[in-house]
Write a structure and sequence with these properties.
By secondary structure, this protein is α/β, with parallel strands linked by helices. Helix content is 29%, strand content 27%. The chain has a single domain, classed as Nucleoside phosphorylase domain (Rossmann fold, 3-Layer(aba) Sandwich), CATH 3.40.50.1580.
C-alpha cells in the first residue's frame, strides 16, 4: 500500500517505509508532508517495496525505515533506537538481528525485527538512508497491539523528524 501525502516534487523528498499500517498511521495522522509506503511484514516485502521506492528517488532524497522491534530487558519499552545508515554509526551499542519468525528466546538476541535486512539491501546505493526502531516488547510479541504500536511511533515522531532533517 502506498499513501502519498506529497504530490509535488520539491528539493528533497522524504520517503518513509513501514511494515505495518499501525506504524504508518501515526505519521499519517500528523499530516506531515511525506511519502509513506506500507509493505507488510518480512524482509522480502521490505526489500521489494523499498527497491520500488528507490527507483522514484532523486540523489538528495531521503528514505527512512521506521518500525517496532523486540529487545532484551536492558532496553526500555518505547526507547528509540537510531541507526545512522550512511555511516553505520549506532548511538547505543547493540546487535540488530533480522528474523523470519517471532522470537521468544530472551537471552539469544539484543534487538530483533523482521524487515531491517530487506531495507539495508535495497538501499545499499542510497546516500540518505536511515533506520529507526522503537522497542515494543521484551520478546513477548503477543503483548503488542495495533494501538500500542501506533502510540510508540507517535511518541517518537518529533525526535525522528529532527534527526532526518539535519
Amino acid at each position: 500500500m502506498i499513501i502519498t501525502q506529497n504530490d509535488k516534487k520539491e528539493e528533497k523528498m522524504i520517503y518513509l517505509i513501514f511494515a505495518l499500517k499501525a506504524e504508518a498511521q501515526a505519521f499519517i495522522e500528523k499530516k506531515l508532508d511525506l511519502n509513506i509506503t506500507v509493505c507488510g511484514i518480512g524482509s522480502h516485502n521490505m526489500y521489494n517495496a523499498t527497491k520500488k521506492t528507490v527507483k522514484l528517488m532523486d540523489e538528495d532524497d531521503i528514505i527512512v525505515n521506521i518500525g517496532i522491534c523486540g529487545a532484551s530487558k536492558e532496553f526500555i519499552i518505547g526507547e528509540l533506537l537510531y541507526i545512522d545508515m550512511p555511516s553505520k554509526n549506532i548511538k547505543k551499542k547493540f546487535t540488530l538481528s533480522c528474523v523470519d519468525n517471532k522470537v521468544t528466546k530472551k537471552d539469544k538476541y539484543d534487538v530483533v525485527d523482521m524487515e531491517s535486512s530487506g531495507f539495508i539491501d535495497a538501499t545499499n546505493m542510497v546516500k540518505n538512508r536511515y533506520m529507526f526502531k522503537i522497542v515494543s516488547d521484551h520478546f513477548e510479541p503477543k503483548s503488542v497491539t495495533k494501538d500500542g504500536a501506533k502510540k510508540l511511533i507517535f511518541d517518537n515522531i518529533d525526535n525522528i523528524m529532527k534527526r532526518i532533517k539535519r
